[in-house]
From TrEMBL:
GO molecular function, one term: ketol-acid reductoisomerase activity
Protein name: Ketol-acid reductoisomerase (NADP(+))
Domain KARI N-terminal Rossmann: 2-182
Entry's EC annotation: 1.1.1.86
GO biological process: isoleucine biosynthetic process; L-valine biosynthetic process
Domain spans labelled KARI C-terminal knotted: 183-326
Active site: H108
Function statement: Involved in the biosynthesis of branched-chain amino acids (BCAA). Catalyzes an alkyl-migration followed by a ketol-acid reduction of (S)-2-acetolactate (S2AL) to yield (R)-2,3-dihydroxy-isovalerate. In the isomerase reaction, S2AL is rearranged via a Mg-dependent methyl migration to produce 3-hydroxy-3-methyl-2-ketobutyrate (HMKB). In the reductase reaction, this 2-ketoacid undergoes a metal-dependent reduction by NADPH to yield (R)-2,3-dihydroxy-isovalerate.
Lineage: Bacteria, Bacillati, Actinomycetota, Actinomycetes, Bifidobacteriales
Gene Ontology cellular-component terms listed: cytosol
Length: 339
């Protein structure tokens, strides 16, 4: 069985007298910096001086420095910039300044697993990867709860890497929910697989296609939106609580029969999932993504543009604006920064 750690398994005193640098102040960065600070950890945020997040972080009472300065004084450096920029930040700003023996930490195994970042042997390397978006990591902490994490150690030169990892996870609030032991390889490959095939690439395309089939057949977009998008959350909530047996239990026999006999997700889909898993395992997905990013992300940007204009996305905001319970929720996300 997988090893799982909880609140009593982490010792915050391991971080006493240590400085933790959080590099980046985006989705994960702001949550890690604020949660650790509120847990009594000495935190410094490392940002480019031009970043618009400098003011946000300072307003929250956090100490902010340039990345080289923050890296130079830290005993633990958690790298929370986007994955595709991390290796350049490491090479230019962190590696030349890092203290001997300082720990290097990640919230996703990508750069270590695919070999884009290779800290020298004297640095402990660990991962505390929240299995939820950064804004929920912060919201749960404030509410006295936590988002579960998966944790891993890649390098342990002194024998204290696991103690550091669990102390960090505890300060993040994650041990309130639980930390599951994994490896950088397992986390990276399963995280990419899940987001590509189910959570994002699977669900987003299912919803989009379902909406198009219904509206093409002449049904009202408001009704179609409800049936294939809005209700999804309620089904997922039930699944989250009690698995598929619970969402099936709560739905009608008619819905269940249609579910069991539906043929959309068939063996062809399994083969496509296995194909995408292979591309994750052999590194070709990572290579394609990083090469495009290095070229200025032409393919990525074109895809962002294309997918932000699919039919359900152009009518979705108008529909949600009509739903009184949803007022203002679109603005939670700073959509101006999305494209
Ligand atoms: P974001 O895109 O939200 O983070 C952007 C932050 O990185 C900004 O503060 C940005 O500052 C900073 N940044 C970008 N480039 C640089 C640079 N060259 N030097 C210094 N800072 C820079 O990232 P996420 O929080 O989404 O992801 C961070 C890590 O967490 C990734 O490894 C990701 O895989 C992982 N993760 C993310 C999850 C999520 O919820 N999003 C969930 C679990 C793991 P600026 O204003 O200067 O651009
Ligand atoms: Mg991911
Ligand atoms: Mg229905």
């Amino acid at each position: 069985a997988a090893q799982i750690w909880y609140e009593n398994d982490g010792d915050l005193s391991v971080l006493e007298g240590k400085k933790v640098a959080i590099i980046g102040y985006g989705s994960q960065g702001h949550a890690h910096a604020l949660n650790l600070r509120d847990s009594g950890v000495d935190v410094v945020v490392g940002l480019r001086p031009t970043s618009k997040s400098v003011e946000h972080a300072k307003e929250q009472g956090l100490e902010v420095k340039s990345v080289p300065e923050a890296a130079a004084e830290a005993d633990v450096i958690m790298i929370l910039a986007p994955d595709q920029y991390q290796r350049n930040i490491w090479k230019n700003d962190i590696e030349p300044n890092i203290k001997p023996g300082a720990a290097v930490a990640f919230a996703h195994g990508f750069n270590i697993h695919y070999g884009y970042i290779k800290p020298s042997e004297d640095h402990p390397v660990f991962m505390v990867a929240p299995k939820g978006p950064g804004h929920i990591v912060r919201r749960e902490y404030v509410n006295g709860r936590g988002v579960p994490v998966v944790v891993a150690v890649e390098q342990d030169p002194r024998g204290d890497a696991w103690a550091l990892t669990l102390a960090y996870a505890k300060a993040l609030g994650a041990l309130r929910a639980g930390a599951i032991k994994t490896t950088f390889k397992e986390e990276t490959e399963t995280d990419l697989f899940g987001e590509q095939n189910v959570l994002m690439g699977g669900v987003n395309k299912l919803v989009e296609m379902g909406f198009e089939v219904l509206t093409d057949a002449g049904y009202q977009p408001e009704i179609a939106y409800f049936e294939v998008c809005h209700e999804l959350k309620m089904i997922v909530d039930l699944m989250n609580e009690g698995g598929m047996n619970k969402d099936r239990w709560s739905c009608s026999d008619t819905a269940q029969y249609g579910d069991y006999t539906n043929t959309c997700i068939d063996e062809h889909v399994r083969e496509r999932m296995q194909y995408h898993l292979k591309r994750i395992q052999d590194g070709s997905f990572a290579k394609e993504f990083i090469e495009d990013q290095d070229a200025g992300a032409p393919k990525f940007k074109a895809l962002q543009e294309e997918y932000s204009n699919v039919r359900i996305e152009t009518v979705g905001p108008k529909l949600r604006a009509m739903f009184s319970w949803n007022n203002g929720k679109d603005e939670d996300a700073d959509m101006a920064t999305f494209n």
